[in-house]
Amino acid sequence: MLVAEIDGRLVGDCSIHPQGLRRRTRHRCGLGISLLQEVWGNGLGTAMLEYAIFAAKDFDYEQMELEVVSTNERAIHLYRKLGFVPCGLLPRALKYKDGSWGDFTQMVLDLRTIERKTEE
Ligand SMILES: CC(C)(COP(=O)(O)OP(=O)(O)OC[C@H]1O[C@@H](n2cnc3c(N)ncnc32)[C@H](O)[C@@H]1OP(=O)(O)O)[C@@H](O)C(=O)NCCC(=O)NCCS
Protein backbone atom coordinates (compact mmCIF):
# COMPACT_ATOMS: atom_id res chain seq x y z
CA MET A 1 0.00 0.00 0.00
CA LEU A 2 1.16 3.47 -0.92
CA VAL A 3 -0.24 6.46 0.94
CA ALA A 4 -0.21 10.19 0.15
CA GLU A 5 0.13 12.77 2.90
CA ILE A 6 -0.06 16.54 2.79
CA ASP A 7 1.34 18.28 5.88
CA GLY A 8 1.06 15.00 7.79
CA ARG A 9 -2.58 14.42 6.84
CA LEU A 10 -3.53 11.27 4.95
CA VAL A 11 -5.17 12.29 1.63
CA GLY A 12 -5.12 9.07 -0.34
CA ASP A 13 -4.06 5.50 -0.75
CA CYS A 14 -3.30 3.14 -3.57
CA SER A 15 -2.77 -0.57 -3.11
CA ILE A 16 -2.16 -3.76 -5.00
CA HIS A 17 -3.20 -7.19 -3.77
CA PRO A 18 -2.89 -10.74 -5.08
CA GLN A 19 -5.84 -12.11 -7.04
CA GLY A 20 -4.89 -15.68 -6.17
CA LEU A 21 -2.02 -17.59 -4.62
CA ARG A 22 -2.17 -20.72 -6.75
CA ARG A 23 0.41 -21.23 -9.48
CA ARG A 24 -2.18 -20.59 -12.19
CA THR A 25 -3.37 -17.28 -10.73
CA ARG A 26 -0.39 -15.77 -8.99
CA HIS A 27 0.58 -13.67 -12.04
CA ARG A 28 -2.51 -11.50 -11.38
CA CYS A 29 -2.89 -8.55 -8.99
CA GLY A 30 -5.81 -6.27 -8.22
CA LEU A 31 -5.63 -2.51 -7.76
CA GLY A 32 -7.48 -0.02 -5.56
CA ILE A 33 -7.02 3.76 -5.38
CA SER A 34 -8.87 6.45 -3.49
CA LEU A 35 -8.04 10.10 -2.85
CA LEU A 36 -9.87 12.79 -0.90
CA GLN A 37 -11.95 14.86 -3.30
CA GLU A 38 -10.17 18.08 -2.31
CA VAL A 39 -6.93 16.83 -3.92
CA TRP A 40 -8.42 15.51 -7.17
CA GLY A 41 -7.17 16.94 -10.45
CA ASN A 42 -3.57 17.66 -9.44
CA GLY A 43 -1.86 14.63 -10.94
CA LEU A 44 -1.65 12.71 -7.66
CA GLY A 45 -3.77 9.81 -8.94
CA THR A 46 -1.56 9.49 -12.03
CA ALA A 47 1.63 9.54 -9.94
CA MET A 48 0.36 6.95 -7.44
CA LEU A 49 -0.97 4.63 -10.12
CA GLU A 50 2.29 4.82 -12.09
CA TYR A 51 4.19 3.94 -8.93
CA ALA A 52 1.84 1.01 -8.22
CA ILE A 53 2.30 -0.32 -11.76
CA PHE A 54 6.08 -0.37 -11.44
CA ALA A 55 5.83 -1.85 -7.93
CA ALA A 56 3.62 -4.63 -9.36
CA LYS A 57 6.27 -5.35 -11.97
CA ASP A 58 8.90 -5.50 -9.25
CA PHE A 59 6.74 -8.14 -7.52
CA ASP A 60 6.74 -10.03 -10.86
CA TYR A 61 3.01 -9.65 -11.45
CA GLU A 62 2.13 -9.89 -15.16
CA GLN A 63 -1.44 -8.62 -15.10
CA MET A 64 -3.24 -5.89 -13.13
CA GLU A 65 -7.03 -5.94 -12.82
CA LEU A 66 -9.70 -3.66 -11.40
CA GLU A 67 -13.39 -2.90 -11.33
CA VAL A 68 -14.70 0.66 -11.55
CA VAL A 69 -18.22 2.07 -11.46
CA SER A 70 -19.10 2.53 -15.13
CA THR A 71 -20.10 6.19 -14.70
CA ASN A 72 -16.77 7.12 -13.05
CA GLU A 73 -15.36 8.90 -16.11
CA ARG A 74 -12.44 10.48 -14.28
CA ALA A 75 -11.12 7.13 -13.02
CA ILE A 76 -11.73 5.40 -16.36
CA HIS A 77 -9.85 8.18 -18.15
CA LEU A 78 -6.94 7.74 -15.73
CA TYR A 79 -6.86 3.96 -16.18
CA ARG A 80 -7.01 4.20 -19.98
CA LYS A 81 -4.24 6.80 -19.95
CA LEU A 82 -1.96 4.34 -18.16
CA GLY A 83 -2.79 1.47 -20.51
CA PHE A 84 -5.75 -0.34 -18.98
CA VAL A 85 -8.37 -1.64 -21.40
CA PRO A 86 -11.99 -2.57 -20.61
CA CYS A 87 -12.56 -6.33 -20.59
CA GLY A 88 -16.06 -6.74 -19.23
CA LEU A 89 -19.14 -5.26 -17.65
CA LEU A 90 -20.83 -6.51 -14.50
CA PRO A 91 -24.40 -5.24 -14.52
CA ARG A 92 -26.17 -4.31 -11.24
CA ALA A 93 -22.94 -4.64 -9.22
CA LEU A 94 -24.22 -1.95 -6.83
CA LYS A 95 -27.70 -1.27 -5.52
CA TYR A 96 -28.18 2.25 -4.16
CA LYS A 97 -30.55 3.38 -1.39
CA ASP A 98 -33.02 4.82 -3.92
CA GLY A 99 -33.26 1.45 -5.68
CA SER A 100 -31.13 2.41 -8.69
CA TRP A 101 -28.23 0.28 -9.88
CA GLY A 102 -24.57 0.79 -10.73
CA ASP A 103 -22.59 -1.34 -13.15
CA PHE A 104 -18.92 -2.22 -12.84
CA THR A 105 -16.59 -1.89 -15.81
CA GLN A 106 -13.82 -4.44 -15.52
CA MET A 107 -10.40 -3.34 -16.77
CA VAL A 108 -7.08 -5.06 -17.25
CA LEU A 109 -3.47 -3.98 -17.81
CA ASP A 110 -0.98 -6.36 -19.41
CA LEU A 111 2.08 -5.57 -17.30
CA ARG A 112 4.33 -7.46 -19.73
CA THR A 113 3.91 -4.52 -22.15
CA ILE A 114 5.13 -1.97 -19.60
CA GLU A 115 8.83 -1.11 -19.67
CA ARG A 116 10.42 -1.45 -16.25
CA LYS A 117 11.54 1.94 -14.98
CA THR A 118 15.16 2.19 -13.96
CA GLU A 119 15.66 4.52 -11.03
CA GLU A 120 18.91 6.20 -10.11
C1 LIG B 1 -9.93 8.52 -9.67
C2 LIG B 1 -8.91 9.32 -8.87
C3 LIG B 1 -7.94 8.35 -8.18
C4 LIG B 1 -8.14 10.23 -9.82
O1 LIG B 1 -7.16 10.95 -9.07
P1 LIG B 1 -6.66 12.41 -9.53
O2 LIG B 1 -5.54 12.80 -8.65
O3 LIG B 1 -7.82 13.31 -9.65
O4 LIG B 1 -6.11 12.04 -10.99
P2 LIG B 1 -5.16 12.95 -11.92
O5 LIG B 1 -5.27 14.38 -11.52
O6 LIG B 1 -3.80 12.34 -11.93
O7 LIG B 1 -5.79 12.68 -13.35
C5 LIG B 1 -7.16 12.88 -13.58
C6 LIG B 1 -7.40 12.78 -15.07
O8 LIG B 1 -8.80 12.68 -15.28
C7 LIG B 1 -9.19 13.72 -16.18
N1 LIG B 1 -10.56 14.03 -15.82
C8 LIG B 1 -11.00 14.81 -14.82
N2 LIG B 1 -12.35 14.81 -14.81
C9 LIG B 1 -12.75 14.01 -15.82
C10 LIG B 1 -14.01 13.61 -16.32
N3 LIG B 1 -15.16 14.03 -15.75
N4 LIG B 1 -14.06 12.78 -17.38
C11 LIG B 1 -12.92 12.33 -17.96
N5 LIG B 1 -11.68 12.67 -17.52
C12 LIG B 1 -11.62 13.50 -16.47
C13 LIG B 1 -8.19 14.81 -15.98
O9 LIG B 1 -8.13 15.68 -17.09
C14 LIG B 1 -6.91 13.99 -15.83
O10 LIG B 1 -6.50 13.51 -17.07
P3 LIG B 1 -5.16 14.08 -17.81
O11 LIG B 1 -4.01 13.78 -16.90
O12 LIG B 1 -5.12 13.29 -19.09
O13 LIG B 1 -5.39 15.55 -18.02
C15 LIG B 1 -9.62 10.21 -7.79
O14 LIG B 1 -10.52 11.05 -8.47
C16 LIG B 1 -10.36 9.43 -6.71
O15 LIG B 1 -9.78 8.99 -5.72
N6 LIG B 1 -11.67 9.28 -6.91
C17 LIG B 1 -12.53 8.63 -5.89
C18 LIG B 1 -12.24 7.16 -5.74
C19 LIG B 1 -12.27 6.46 -7.06
O16 LIG B 1 -13.06 6.79 -7.94
N7 LIG B 1 -11.38 5.48 -7.15
C20 LIG B 1 -11.32 4.63 -8.32
C21 LIG B 1 -12.34 3.56 -8.15
S1 LIG B 1 -11.92 2.12 -9.07
What's the helix and strand layout?
Blueprint: E1 2-6, E2 9-18, E3 28-35, H1 44-58, E4 63-69, H2 73-81, E5 85-95, E6 101-110
Parallel strand pairs: 3-4
Antiparallel strand pairs: 1-2, 2-3, 4-6, 5-6
Bound molecules: coenzyme A (COA).
Residues 33-35, 40-46, 66, 68, 72-75, 77-78, 81 line the site of coenzyme A.
Explain what you see.
With 120 residues, the protein is of the alpha+beta class. It has a single domain (2-113), classed as Gcn5-related N-acetyltransferase (GNAT) (Aminopeptidase, 3-Layer(aba) Sandwich), CATH 3.40.630. It has two helices and six strands; from the N terminus they run E-E-E-H-E-H-E-E. It has a six-stranded mixed β-sheet with strand order 1-2-3-4-6-5. The two termini are 22 Å apart. The model has no long low-confidence stretch (mean pLDDT 96). The site of coenzyme A has 19 residues, from strand 3, helix 1, strand 4 and helix 2.
Distance from first to last alpha carbon: 22 Å
Q: For the report, how would you describe the main beta sheet?
A: 6 strands, mixed
Structural class: alpha+beta
Summarize the amount of helix as a percent range.
10-25%
Please work out how many helical segments DSSP would assign.
Answer: 2
Instruction: Provide the CATH superfamily.
Output: Gcn5-related N-acetyltransferase (GNAT)
Kindly give the count of domains: 1
On the 0-100 scale, what is the average pLDDT?
A: 96
Shape: globular
Query: How many strand segments?
Result: 6
Strand order of the largest sheet: 1-2-3-4-6-5
- What's the helix-strand series? EEEHEHEE
Kindly report the CATH topology: Aminopeptidase
Q: Unreliable stretches, pLDDT < 50, 5 or more residues?
A: none
